[in-house]
Amino acid sequence: MANSMVGLDIGATGIRAAEVTRTRKGMALARYHSIALPPGAVVRGEVMEPHVVTGALRELWKRGKFSSKRVVLGVGNDRVLARELTVPAAPLPMIRESLPFQVQDLLPVPISEAILDFYPISDAGHGQVHGLLVAAVKEGVLSTIEAVRRARLETVAVDFVPFALTRALPQRAEDGDAIAVVDVGAHTTTVVISRAGVPHFVRIIPTGGDEVTQTLHARLQLERPVAEDAKRTLGLGMNGFMPHDQPVIEAIREVTGELVTGVRNTVSYFASSRPDLPVRRVVLTGDGASLGGFPAALGEVMRLPIDWGDPLASVLTKERDRPRTNGAANRAAVALGLAMRSAA
Q1: What is the pLDDT of residues 208-239, one digit of tens each?
Q2: Where is the SHS2 domain (predicted)?
């Protein structure tokens, strides 16, 4: 398909790819497939073992039967900076070219070591435009692009994961105010607050579902596969548990409580800085959010409605092309949103 693009989400536990194409009826999901990665191949969004990732990509294309080798790559780990910025109004290419001269004092790394982008949000008046500055560490992005290249794939664009989430999980017609999308990954949790499909605030919390597994492994000396199984089986213990599981439940609740507090504080900070844009709903996605009891715990603390995101609602699909389970569909949000960037 000449007009198709593949969104590529490379995470700590696996790689997910979604191929989206334009049709006369709208955007359509042509293919979706995922493949697992061994621990340590990707850590906090950065490729540590390029040959492993390259091999997995080749196998993913073989199994998924993707028709295109052109990919949009997602970045969004805790080494990516996103902050509000107001700049002189100009065509977007000119704004992007001028960023190195405007943002050096805002970055924790030298300009030469960063990849910069700007997402315009609104007219700030007086010849100014307000938007989000995105800065990623160049070394990590280039190593991922190289692993993709060695798999004989072409990276045509690099996109910010929160922007992909905003595309894949559009607001409902009745959402007049803002929503907070919370994507819980293995090592990071992304919170993006948007209204009418436009992101207004982003924070990447350096904690995810793997933090629970690691705590069970370190504190209770459980082997990682056993710890992972206990986490998924017991969750927060909302449906009861055996007395001998008490130490496991306490550890899970402690780590999850810290994450829930981080999400609440992020939304509270936005609410205090933008009282004109209240958040009315939280949309959950990501594998880590499927921890038993997590949605209820988050809703209790935030006192907001909690819904599961449905990335497939924004594209046309055929039954054979859909992710096979609700959990797989939930994990597909980033890859789908990345592909939608170029298919829009």
Answers
A1: 999 999 999 999 999 999 999 999 999 999 88
A2: 5-169
For 16-20, 122-126, 187-191, 222-226, which range has the lowest pLDDT when averaged over its residues?
122-126
Q: What is the mean pLDDT of residues 259-284?
A: 94
pLDDT digit string, tens, across residues 84-115? 899 999 999 999 999 998 888 888 888 989 98
| CA nearest to 285, candidates 204, 201, 193, 189 | 189
Token representation of residue 95: 């704004």
* Structural domains of the chain sorted by starting position, each given as residue range(s) with its CATH number in brackets: 81-133 (3.30.1490), 172-309 (3.30.420.40)
DSSP string, 185-239: -SS-EEEEEEETTEEEEEEEES--THHHHHHHHHHH---HHHHHHHHHHHTT-TT
Beta pairing, strands 189-195 & 46-47: unpaired
What separation in angstroms does the CA of 33 have from each of 45, 117, 136, 161, 338? Answer: 19, 29, 27, 18, 14
Beta bridge pairs of residue 32: 18
| Distance (Å, whole) CA 84 – CA 244 | 48
235 touches 216 (CB < 8 A): no
pTM of full prediction above 0.85: yes
